Amino acid sequence: MDNSDINKGWRKEKSSNSLNEVFSSIKIPENASSWKKFMAYVGPGLLVAVGYMDPGNWATDIAGGAQFGYTLLSVILISNLFAIVLQHLSVKLGIVAERDLAQACKDHFSPGVNFVLWIFCEIAIAACDLAEVIGSAIALNLLFGIPLSVGVVITVIDVFLILFLQSRGFRYIESIVGGLIFVIFSAFLYEIILSQPAIFPMLEGLIPKKEIITNPSMLYIAIGILGATVMPHNLYLHSSIVQTRNYPRTTEGKKEALKFASLDSSLSLMLAFFINAAILIISAATFHTSGNKDVADINDAYMLLSPLLGTTLASIFFGIALLASGQNSTLTGTLAGQIVMEGFLNIRLKPWVRRLITRLIAIIPALIISMLYGEKGTAELLVFSQVILSMQLSFAVVPLVMFTGSKAKMGKFVNKMWLKVLAWTISAIIIILNLYLLKETIF
């Protein structure tokens, strides 16, 4: 089976992507060991994992741990397993069909449907960017005393940071992201050692409980965790950046690329699971057990960590990790926005223009809320942004499951029956939970 066999299932040639035109030069060594080949594929998974540990996750995980202890650990675990499956499908679409999800949607759906999907995806990216803006502004406020409104405006500067990094090449971006993830990981490993969580209640929290569904307050945060964990724009992003590897475009070449790229994705997401779970565990061990169950935002957590854990380093490490998280998410949000606009609309904007538009959309509500309502308002806006992300998720997941389950589009690489059932089950769970949330929110 060659590329022409797969391309028969698509109505037209894929549109070009400026990102892959610039960065698709990372050569995969042909006769090297499996380890060296795998290391050549490492990178895109880390960029995707960033979206699973952004400031939006912090807000939902802190609130969940403080209010309900370790109970919602099971939601983080299940969400992460969902993410591993969906990102694998995203990798498969990119490697086999050599299309990102936006390009695939443009090929398959009518212009009207594509426009709606593009709008929903832009809303998701704006919601994600809103979380990054608020998270970075809060970190600047906590570490350096910079007012929230000023911190929100300062986040515009990252436009120039993005331009600089993109000019250096894709491997440079991946290295920076990997370094920042290491900072976040180290900070939370230190926090977990300080907080000394109870092992057995923590393990028990990994088992799902009925009350997560029956308790409306718990369900709201659980869906927020789902939205903060499985990011819709990451499905578009991963299907594109996985193509930055210059692997042989043959059946065997694609099989090998799919194996190594999926391993990169799964291992990176397990790292993201540790960080997400660590935030909730620290919140449960420090706040819930000490009776501070009303801690629902990053500011409160920062202020209470040092007194409760007995060292000022606890809060400082927390703030540094938050700042690293916000900057990391900024990088991937920019790339995702570029991919989505080009894939759906075939409109090419200069990266700094695209980034500035997205950031200004996020800055306006963040600036208004921070000026009018201060810390409490920005914290609530942060959690709400994650619920918005969750609501948009179905519009990315369903097309992805459709395309990778199509024999005509994927040839021999089509999802096996067990994977089709699993993928559609995950889609159904996401849709049902979001419909329930919508009903509860409206009525």
TrEMBL record:
Which Pfam family, any one, appears in the UniProt record?
Nramp
Q: Which compartments is it annotated to reside in?
A: Cell membrane; Membrane
Q: Which UniProt keywords apply?
A: Cell membrane, Ion transport, Membrane, Symport, Transmembrane, Transmembrane helix, Transport
> Chief localization class?
membrane
- Keyword Transmembrane helix tagged: yes
Q: Which GO terms describe its molecular function?
A: cadmium ion transmembrane transporter activity; manganese ion transmembrane transporter activity; metal ion binding; symporter activity
Tell me which Gene Ontology terms the entry assigns under biological process.
Answer: iron ion transmembrane transport
Q: Would you tell me the Gene Ontology cellular component terms?
A: plasma membrane
Q: How does it sit in the membrane?
A: Multi-pass membrane protein
**Which sequence ranges are marked TM in the entry?**
38-55, 67-86, 115-138, 144-165, 177-199, 219-237, 258-282, 302-324, 356-374, 386-405, 417-438
What function is annotated for this protein?
H(+)-stimulated, divalent metal cation uptake system.
Family label: Belongs to the NRAMP family.
- What is this protein's record name? Divalent metal cation transporter MntH
Q: Which organism is it from?
A: Epilithonimonas mollis
What is the phylogenetic placement of the source species in the record? Bacteria, Pseudomonadati, Bacteroidota, Flavobacteriia, Flavobacteriales
